[in-house]
Queue: 4 jobs
Job 1
Amino acid sequence: MDHALYSKSNPYPSELLVNRLMTQGSDKETRHFELSLKDSGLEYLPGDSLGVLPVNCSKVVDDLLRTVGLAGDETVLVNEENLVLQDALMHRLACTVLSKIQIKKFNEIAESEKLAELLQISNKEALIEYMWGRELIDLFLEFPQSGMDAQTFIDLLRPMPPRLYSIASSLAAHADEVHLTVAVVRYDGHGRERKGVCSSYLAERVGERIPCYLHPNKNFKLPADPQTPIIMVGPGTGIAPFRAFLEERMATGASGKNWLFFGDRSQKTDYLYGNEWSDYQKAGVLSNLDLAWSRDQEDKVYVQHKMLEKKSELWRWIQEGAFFYVCGDASRMAKDVDHAIRRIASEEGSMTDDEASKWVKGLQKDRRYLKDVY
C-alpha cells in the first residue's frame, strides 16, 4: 500500500459523493457518507480510520471576530507563516472547544477573579462544569476585552485537529470509495446554537472536495484465518467498522461465523443499515443478530443486556476461538460490555472474579479481544 503521496500534512481532496440521513424522525442525526478515492492510489483495510481536516463554519468565525472586535483582514503569524486572520480562523485554527489552558491564557489578559477561582486545583469539578457547552466566544462575551490585537487573540487558539472516523466500508465491496457513519453534533447551549466542527462540516456538503487521509489501525483487524468466528459489539456509530468487516467477509468468501450486537434508541428511527443486516442474514453471512433498543420499551435495553441473555452461546463461540470486537463509546458502553464479558466468564466458565479478570486479560494478550473506542 502506498500511503506516501497523501498524508495528514498533504491530504487527498476527496469528492463527497453521497451524504444520506439515516435517522428519519429521530432526535439524533446520523449520516452515511461516501467519498471517492479515485486515482488517489490510497488503499485501506477494514478496521482502519479516515482522517478528515474540516473547515470552520463561516458564521462561527464571523461571530467570533465581531465579538473580539477584529476585522478579519489583519495579518497574523501562525507556525512561522504569515496569514490573513480570517483565513487562519477558517482553515488552520480550532475556534470552538474550550480548554483549561485557553482559559488560563485568556485570564492572564482578562484578570477575572471568577476565572482565577475556577482555575484553582480545588475547583476542578466546577471548571469542568463551566466549560461544558461553552466555546471561546463565550469568554469574550462574559469578559469583554476591547482593544485585543489580532496576534494576541490568535495565540489563544490551538491548531485545528483532524478528526478520525472508523471506516464503514470494504474496498473489496466498494472500489475507489471510502464510507463513514457519523453522528452530527448540534445543540443549544448558553443561549447560542452550537454544532460539531467536523460532523456539521460534512453534513452540510455534497459534491465538494473533502481533505482527508488514511489512518491505519493494526490493532483492530479481522482474523488472519477466514474460518475464525467473530463477535462484534457496535451500538450507534460504533457499527461503522463492522459494516466494513461484514462487507469484507462476504466479498472474500470467508467461511467464519459472524455475530453482530447492535443497539440504539429506537428500531423505527435509529436502525442504522438495518436492510443490509437483513440481506446478510438471508445470504447466510450474518449467523446471529441481536438488537438492543433503549427506548422501545419501559426498561432500557443495551447491548450488554443482550450479551448476558445469550451468555451460553457467546461463551461457546469464544471457546471455539471467536474474536471479540467492541467499537463505540469508551466512557460507558465499552466498560459495560467489559463487565458483561467478565460476568459471562464467571458464570459460564465457573471462574472467580480474579480468574475472570485474568481470562479477559489473556484474551486481550492473544489479540482476540479488540477495541476501537473513543
Job 2
Amino acid sequence: MIIQGGMGVAISDWRLAQAVARRGQLGVISGTGIDTVLVRRLQDGDPGADMRRAIAQFPLPQIAEDVLRRYFLPEGRQPGTPYKLIPMYRHGGTRPSEPLTILAAFVEVYLAKEGHSGPVGMNLLTKVQHPNLALLYGAMLAGVDAILMGAGIPRDVPAALDAMAAHRPALLAFDVEGLASGESEHLTLDPSAYWEGPPPPLTRPLFLPIIASNSLATMMARKASGRVDGFIIEGPTAGGHNAPPRGEMQLNAQGEPIYGPRDEVDLAKIRQLGLPFWLAGGAGSPERLKQALDAGAAGVQVGTLFAYCEESGLAEPLRRAVLSEAVEGKVRVRTDPRASPTGYPFKVVEWSGEGAAAKRSRVCDLGYLRTAYRTADGQIGFRCASEPIDTYVAKGGAVEETEGRECLCNALMANVGIGQVRADDQLEPPLLTSGDDLRLIGTFLAGQTHYSAADVIDYLLAGIR
C-alpha cells in the first residue's frame, strides 16, 4: 500500500529503502547521480565498509577492481581536498562512465535488498538520459523488483527492460534539440560486451511510470514499447520536479505556477485502463491513504515524511534545522519555475538555517541535467542553462534561459553531505526540495524531534488496520 518516494540524490538511499522494504512496503532507491555518490563515498574512506562489501558481490570483478583502484582512499580525503570527478557522458564512441554506472546501481540495490525479502525499487528521471540504460542494467543485476520513472515520457523503457533481462542489446530514444525532420538518435547498451562466459539469469522488474495526466497514462498503457505494470499519479504538491501546468504557464503573486482543473487526473478514466495505481503528492497521512484506497488506488507514494526520517540520506544538520523550523511553522515550500535547468517547475524549501540563502557559482561539472543539441557542424553537443552564461550562449543557448537557474546536480550532492569543495575551501551549498506536506509535518511529529521510517509506516497504516 505504501511506496516510499525515490527522492533527490541519495536522499532515498539504501538504508531508507531497506528500512521500508523490511516492513513489507516498497522501498525505493534514487538512481539519479548514484555513480558520483558511490565514488564520493569511496573517496571519504567508505566508513563502515558498506560500499566495499557490496562491490565484492558484483559479478564483474574487473570493473569492481578498477573502480576501487581509481577512487577508494583508505584514509579518506585530506581536509579541503576536492572530490575527484567522474567523466561526464558524451554521445558516441567509448563510454568510460558506463561500467561505473552499472556498478553503482548494483551496489545501491544490493545493499537495499541485503538481509530481507521485502521489495526494492529504483527511481529514475527520464530527463537524465545517458546513464539510464546502465542504471537499469546494474539494478537488474542486483535483483531490483520495480523501476519507477518520471520527468518525461519513458515510452521505450519497457522494451529495454525486456531486452536486458535476456542480456540482449537495449536502446532508448535520445532527445536532441535541433534534429532535422525525420532524424532520430538513440542510446544503446549491449550487455554481452561485459561477459566472457554465460551471464547470470535476470528477472524483468515491474515498470511503474510516474504520470501527471490521463493522456500520458493512456499512451503508456496502450502504446509503450512493452508491458506497463501500473502508474504512480503525481500531483503538483509533490517534491522535486513537477509536471508543468497544462496550457500557457501562468504565475501567481509569489511567482509560482498556477495549477487548475485541467491538471487534475480523472481517476475514473485511470481505473478503466485496468492497471493498479498509486497516488502521490500530499499523500502522507492516514486520511489520504484511505481516500486513495476508496478511489480505487492500490495505495500511495509518500516522500516528505520519509525524507526527514532517521534512515534517509539527508545530512543530519539539515534535517534538524528544517524540522525545528517546520514545527514552528517557519518553513515555506515554493514551486520555483526557474530553478531547474530542465525547465520543469521545482519545489524549493525556504528556511533560515546555515546555507539556506547561500549563493553558488555557475558551474557544470557533473552534467546530469545537460541538454543535448545538434551543433552547426553536425555533431552532438551538450549545454546546461545553469552553466556559466557566456559558455551557454556560445553553445547557441538563449541568454534568457539562464535567468534564475541553479546547479541542481551539485546542490543535491550537498544535501547528503558530499558537496564539492570550491575555491577558498568553500563547500557547495545545499538546495533542499520537499513536498508541500513539509509545512504540516508538525502534526505528524507531535512533539518528537526525530522519527524512523517504521514510525511513518505505522502512522500511515493506523487508520486501515
Job 3
Amino acid sequence: MSLIKILRKTCRKALFTTPSHGQKYFIFNKFRNFYKYDISETDFYNPQEALEKAELQASKIYGTKSTLFLTNGSSSGIIAAVLASVSAGEKVLLWRNAHPCHNNAVKLAGAVPVYYDLQISQEWDIPLKTTVENLETYLKNEKIKAVIVTSPTYEGIVSDIQALKSLCSKYGAYLIVDEAHGALYPFSENLPESAVKIADFTIQSLHKTAGGLNPTALLHCNCNLDIKKALSLINTTSPSYPLLASIEANINFLNSKRGKKQLELLISNIKSLKENCSNCEFFGDDITKILVKHKDYTGFELSEHLYEKENIEDEKTNSKSTMLLCGIGTGEKKLKRLENALRKL
C-alpha cells in the first residue's frame, strides 16, 4: 500500500497514540484536513514500510542507486551527504559563497573546509559555472575527500557535472551536487541534464520549482556509502507523513503524461515571453529562471519598477539583472502579465 492510499483511509479507531490531536482536534481549523491525515510512525497500516516502497519506486524513476525523501529541505540532504562522505579532519572543497548549509555540513562533520571561487559575470553580476579549472588545483595539491558543487546556481547557470565527476573520480573525491533548483531537470529534454545519475549525491528541492510543499526535497545516491545511517543522525524519528505522501504524489505527477505536458507547456510559454520581449536581454542555461535586464534600468531599478508599477515580485536581483523564478505552477496568465510589463519598459 502506498503512503497516499494509507492517508486516504478515513476509517479510524479511537487513537491512544501520537499525534495527540487524534486526527479530530483541530487547533488551527484551516489545516483541518492536514490534521486528519497526520498519522504516527506506529500507525496500524505501517507507513514506514510504505515509505520504503515509495522511495524504492522513486529510485527506479530517477535511475539512482537510492532516493530518499526529505522533509527538512535540501539542507538536510547536503548535511547527510557530507556526514556520509567524510570523517573528522578530512577536507571538503566548496564554493566560498555557497548556501550556508554547505559550511554547516562541514562543521557538523568536523571536517576542514577548503574554498574555491567562481568567475563573476561583469555583464550580469552573477556567478558563472563551476569548471574543472576551478577545482583541479585544489584536488591535485590537497587531500580532498568530497567536493560540493551548486548546479544550477540561483540564477540558472549549470555546470558540466559529467566533467566534474570524472575529475573527482581521478583524485578519489566524492562529488555532491546541490541541485536544489533543478528538480524539474529529469523530466524534460528541453531542460539541462540532471546530476541525479552522475554525481555520488544529488540533492533537489521539490518546493522550489517542482510544485512541492515547503520544505520537501530529495536525496539521490549513486555510491556505496551508508547514506541512510548518515541521514538518521539528523532526522526526526517522528516524520510528517502528510509531507512524505506529498513527495510521493509530487514525483508521480512529474513522471506522468499530465505532469510532463504541464512542464513542456511552461517551457513553451517562457520561450514565447522571451521572443515577444525583444526590448530586454535574457541569460542563463535554465529557462525556468527568467534572468532579465534592460538597457535603461539597473537590476535594482527594474526590480523596484516591476514591484511598484506592475505589482510583480521577483525572486532575486542585483546591480545588473533581475531573476524571476518559474515552476510547474507558473501559469500562462501570470507569464502574460510579466510579458506585458516587460514589453512596456
Job 4
Amino acid sequence: MKYHLAIDIGASSGRHIVGWREDGELKTKEVHRFPNGPKERDGRLTWDVAALLAEVRAGIEKAKAEFGSIESLAIDTWGVDYVLLRGNEEVLPCYAYRDGRTEAVIEKVHEKMPFAELYRRTGCQFQPFNTIYQLYADKLAGRLVGVTDMLMLPEYLMWKLCGVRAREYTNATTTGMVNAQTGEFDLDIADALGLPRALFPKLTKPGTVVGEYKGIQCVLCATHDTGSAVEGIPMEGNQPYISSGTWSLLGVKTPKPITDEASREANYSNEGGVGYNRYQKNIMGMWLVNQLQKELCPDTPFPEIVKLAEASTCTATVDANAPAFLAPESMKAAFDQAAGGALKAPGDYFRCAYASLALSYRDAIRELEHNTGKKYEKLYIVGGGAKNAFLNRLTEQATGLKVVALPIEATALGNLKVQMEPANKKSSPK
C-alpha cells in the first residue's frame, strides 16, 4: 500500500495528513497538528519560518514512524507571503500579510501602473497585502538589493526539504503579477515597478515532482491552500463554493479568467486551479469571530459561542469586508464603531459577525451570477466554517441557495488528490 503525506499550513494552524487508497476509497489520518500565527517583531507582524520548517520536518518524521514508507509529500499554505533569498541566504524577517507596511506604497504602485491596467493584465483582485505591494515596499526599504530569488512560503519550505526552487502556478496567481492570458509572470509589470526580473521565472504546474526528501518524492500540489481546497470538494456539477476558514473564499470554477470591468468593480479575483480558473473573492471570514472570542470570552469553546449567537435577538449587521476589520488593535472596538453601540452582550457581537458574513455571501453570490451570466442552485461550504450549522442556516436564508456543508479537510484532500492521480504527475523541471 502506498502512503502519501499532505502538509497543509494555514494562518492559524498546520496539519500533516497521511492518505492512502483502500478498497477503492481514499482513507486519511492526521498524524501531526501545530499552532501557527504571526509574531510581532520590532513592531511588525512576521512569520517564524524556522519554526514552520521545524514543524514540517517533525510531522514528516511522525508520518514515517507510524506508516513506514511514505511515497510522496506536498505542501500548501495561504497565498501572497514569501521569503526573499540572496543566493542561499534568507532575507529576514518574512513579513505577514496582515502587517500594515504596504499602506504607504499602494498609491505609488498605482502611479507606475494604474490598478485598472493591473486588473486587465492579471485579473487579480485588489487587496492591500497583495505580493505586488509587499515587493514594492521591500524595494523602497532597500530589501531587494542583491536579492536573487523570491519563493512563496510553500515553495520555500519545499526548497529547504529537497533543494529545488520551483515556482508553482496557483500560488503565483495570488501575487497580482501573473498575466491572466499567458499564465506566466507579467514582466512588463515588473519593469514598470523596477522589480528585478530574476524574481519572476517560468512557473511550474501542480503535479510536478520537484525532488526528494529522505527517499520521499516532493510533489507540487496546488500550493495555494484554496486551490487545493477547491480541488478537494466532491462537487456535483459546477456550483459556487466557500472555503471557510480565517478567510472565506467564495467563487466558482471557470474555463478562463474573467477580467472585465464588472469583475474589477466587484473585486473578483482570477486565481489558478488544476486545469481551470478560480473566479473568486476574499471575504473576511472566521477571523472576525476568532478575534472577538479572544477579547470577549477566551475560555469559551466555539460550540458555546454559536449558542450565544443563536440566543441573541440583536439585529445589527456591519460590512464584514470593511478595512477596519483587517487587523484592528481591538476587534470589539471595531465592531462597536461599525454597529453604532448596538452590541451589548457577547452573543450580540457573535450574532452580528455571523449575520454580517451571511450578507456578504449573499452580495458576492449576486455579483457572481451577474458576472458569469449563470444562475446557481447550490453553495458548497468546506473548511472549519462548514461545521457551523447556525452560520450555514443564515447563509442559506440570505443567498436563497441550498447549502451543502462538508465538514471535511478539503484542502488536504485536494493536496493528496494531485499527488495520487497519475494524470497529474509531470516530470521534474530542469
